[in-house]
From TrEMBL:
It comes from Gigaspora rosea. This is 3-keto-steroid reductase. It comes from the Eukaryota. InterPro entries: 3KSR/17beta-HSD, NAD(P)-bd_dom_sf, SDR_fam. GO terms for biological process: sterol metabolic process. GO terms for cellular component: endoplasmic reticulum membrane.
Length: 348
């Protein structure tokens, strides 16, 4: 027979709202910052418990991240699932595991991404340093991105990692998301996305000179367009930008010395008034956190939410419209992704 205290604890546990949040690319960078913010929020909200699921490609790095999060938030619930977004077969397997482990999903952060680099154009960096230092500090113009890279499954590499892998997850996990009643899909886009680099005939970003910028523009389009399909099931889709964060997505191409210079440059740019220089993953994750925790009626699904920082470090967010968003074009792109997904569903 249970003691009175045990019964009270059981009742309290039942009364506590437990949410499941899946974060791709959560072992470092903005994804790790999102996990930190959610666990911090959960620890300070007695009626809320957030179970964070780190969806990562490298299990070892994911385990290190999990240990760090639990050390920082000892009472936290942190799980790991393995997924390589460049492999649709891996995405299917990951979603199958998620369906077996969890009976609902409240938050799906489509965060992981790549910015491939062949080399850094130092001459252009010097030129921009004199002619347009703001562009040098806020855009990826000095990164020479490879053209034509494909995955072993024949998809555009950047497209698969930044867009399609996540889209497959959304479609595969849609039923679990619908159980929440207030589920949110939150796409980490970028300030660097640019419609000028997008070509519908090359929607897999294979032939274009700037696949990263193009893929992030696609992210914005589908994040908004998904609401047409999903809102009836009480699933809401948003697009965010972390600003300019000094993460390993850029730092890995520079070496540790230049990585330090990069962080100093970003910080100096912020002090000089560049609000998008968020620098740290904690700051960069703020827009994701706001969209995840704000009442749904306070959010606008047609807008993009940006993390911003004042010169001396105070983080905040601002909203903007998505550059030249056209519903017809976005819906057509969703249909194209559906056809591609159908092809993989038959193969796998």
């Amino acid at each position: 027979m249970k003691s009175k205290r045990a019964i009270e604890e059981a009742i309290q546990t039942e009364a506590m709202q437990t949410k499941v949040a899946i974060i791709t690319g959560a072992n470092s960078g903005v994804g790790f910052g999102i996990a930190q913010r959610l666990l911090d929020y959960s620890s300070k909200t007695p009626s809320l418990c957030i179970r964070v699921v780190l969806a990562c490609r490298n299990p070892t790095r994911a385990s290190v991240a999990r240990e760090a999060l639990i050390n920082e938030y000892p009472e936290s619930l942190v799980d790991i699932v393995t997924v390589d977004l460049s492999s649709i077969d891996s995405v299917f397997k990951c979603c199958k595991e998620i369906k077996e482990k969890y009976d609902r999903i409240d938050l799906l952060f489509c965060n992981a991404g790549i910015l491939s680099c062949e080399y850094l154009d130092w001459w252009n960096a010097i030129y921009l340093g004199f002619t347009s230092p703001i562009s040098l500090l806020t855009e990826s113009k000095i990164v020479a991105q490879p053209i034509g890279n494909k995955t072993i499954e024949g998809l555009g590499e950047t497209f698969a990692c930044n867009v399609f892998g996540h889209y497959v997850m959304v479609r595969q996990l849609e039923d679990l998301l619908s159980i929440s009643g207030d589920a949110r899909i939150i796409w980490t886009s970028s300030d660097a996305c640019n419609k000028d680099y997008f070509n519908f005939a090359d929607y897999q970003c294979i032939e274009g000179t700037n696949p990263y910028e193009s893929s992030k523009y696609i992210t914005d389009m589908i994040a908004i367009a998904l609401n047409i399909r999903l809102n009836a099931r009480h699933i809401y889709s948003f697009t965010t930008s972390p600003g300019v964060v000094a993460t390993n997505i850029v730092g890995s191409h520079l070496g540790w010395v230049m990585d330090k210079f990069m962080k100093v440059g970003f910080t100096l740019g912020r002090i000089c008034g560049l609000r998008e220089e968020t620098v740290t993953a904690w700051n960069g994750s703020y827009s994701n956190f706001i969209v995840a925790t704000s009442p749904i009626e306070c959010l606008n699904k047609l807008l993009k939410y940006h993390s911003r920082v004042k010169p001396w470090g105070t983080v905040y967010y601002e909203e903007s419209s998505v550059d030249d968003y056209k519903e017809k074009e976005a819906t057509s792109l969703l249909n194209q992704l559906d056809r591609l997904l159908d092809d993989f569903s038959k193969k796998i």
